[in-house]
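Researcher: We're teaching a course module on how sequence relates to structure. For the next exercise, students receive a sequence and then see the predicted structure as tokens, so they can try to spot secondary structure elements on their own. Here is the exercise chain.
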Amino acid sequence: MHQIVVMLAASASWTGMPAGQAAPAQTAPVSAAPAPAQPAGPAWQLVCAPAPAASPTPSPAPAPAANQPCSLVQNLLAGEQKQRLLTVIVQRTPQAGHNMTVALPHGVLFPAGVSLQVDEAPEKPLAVQTSDQNGAYTGTAVDAALLTALRGGKTLKIGFTAGNGQRIIVPVTLRDFPAGLVALDKSPLPVAPKPAAPAPAKPK
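Model: And here is the predicted structure for the students to work with:
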């Protein structure tokens, strides 16, 4: 997975505690997140290299330069201050497939994992893979079935559990996704990482 640098704002009303702390899981009803704000313009925007930072208004790239890999990005904002809620990033792979990365806010309960659901299809469970000072991250390869669902769906629902045990479902619109995917697939493939050099032989 490519390293994605994002700025995520923790939501104290969701986590119930400062960022970086965790709480035991509690039985709590599933809660829909407050309706996230959408930046003006297309919901999904093509952002070309360098890798996209999560800003409230990512700049679309109408024509990627030669050998410049791109990402299809949707940033979700919350609250009157339009703070970072989460970021969804779709990228091409060197093998002409696709990966999805989800950048989550601080305070996510790691053991409970993350779920992806397109409309009313079965949920796809994911593990929280890593975290840093900007939030937590998960991701998945986008297989043919998921890609078809994303193209034809209306809403991608991202679920995670807050530090207070409450399950949160964030709706991500799939409006503009098909057109954005067409633009993404016209961008160059990323370069595959070079294999590590073999270790030098130890003298006998």
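Model: If you want an answer key for the exercise: The longest strand covers residues 83-92. The first helix runs from residue 12 to 15.
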